[in-house]
């Protein structure tokens, strides 16, 4: 069973663990570098601030009571769009944790995203269109 948890700034140690693992395992997938978040960059307040971006939604996938994936979305100037700015799943869990699990959790929450997504050429940002209230009522 995969659980998708919504994080708060108090969950920064979990986010830190996953983010550092992600930057080490797949550095080409992120705009940040591992070195940016280590040493002087590895401060509790910085991790808390990262999880406290206004309007953001930060999720962690938990498989067999172990955090195995992370995802973060932030609002855009278009109220019907969100930017998926960070997503990673541990290689051992990729078969079990699909993008569907992330979006299903998000759709169930107060900020919903329709399954129509597109990525930027860099692969670092994905946008998802939120359905209208009418579409949510009929879903």
List the helices and strands and how they pair.
Elements: E1 2-6, H1 12-25, H2 44-50, E2 57-63, E3 66-75, E4 81-89, H3 99-108, E5 117-119, E6 126-129, H4 133-138
Antiparallel strand pairs: 1-2, 2-3, 3-4, 4-6, 5-6
Structure description:
The protein has helices at 12-25, 44-50, 99-108, 133-138; strands at residues 2-6, 57-63, 66-75, 81-89, 117-119, 126-129. The protein is α+β, with helices and mostly antiparallel strands. Strands 1-2-3-4-6-5 form a 6-stranded antiparallel β-sheet, sandwiched between helices. The chain starts with a strand and ends with a helix.
Backbone shape? globular
Distance between the termini: 24 Å
- List the helices and strands in order: EHHEEEHEEH
**Biggest β-sheet description:** 6 strands, antiparallel
| Total count of strands | 6
Instruction: Estimate what percentage of residues fall within beta strands.
Output: 25-35%
Q: Give the strand order, joined by hyphens, for the main sheet.
A: 1-2-3-4-6-5
Fraction of residues in H or I helices: 25-40%
Mean pLDDT: 77
Radius of gyration from the CA trace? 15 Å
- Assign the structural class, choosing from mainly alpha, mainly beta, alpha/beta, alpha+beta, or little secondary structure: alpha+beta
């Amino acid at each position: 069973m995969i659980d998708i948890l919504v994080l708060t700034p108090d969950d920064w140690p979990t986010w830190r663990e996953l983010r550092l693992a992600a930057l080490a395992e797949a550095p080409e997938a992120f705009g940040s570098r591992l070195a940016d978040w280590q040493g002087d960059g590895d401060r509790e307040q910085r991790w808390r601030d990262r999880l406290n971006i206004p309007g953001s939604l930060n999720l962690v996938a938990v498989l067999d009571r172990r955090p195995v994936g992370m995802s973060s979305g932030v609002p855009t100037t278009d109220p019907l769009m969100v930017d998926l700015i960070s997503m990673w799943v541990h290689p051992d869990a990729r078969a079990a944790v699909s993008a569907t699990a992330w979006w299903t959790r998000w759709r169930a929450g107060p900020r919903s995203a329709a399954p129509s997504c597109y990525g930027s050429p860099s692969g670092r940002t994905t946008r998802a269109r939120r359905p209208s209230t009418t579409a949510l009522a009929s879903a």
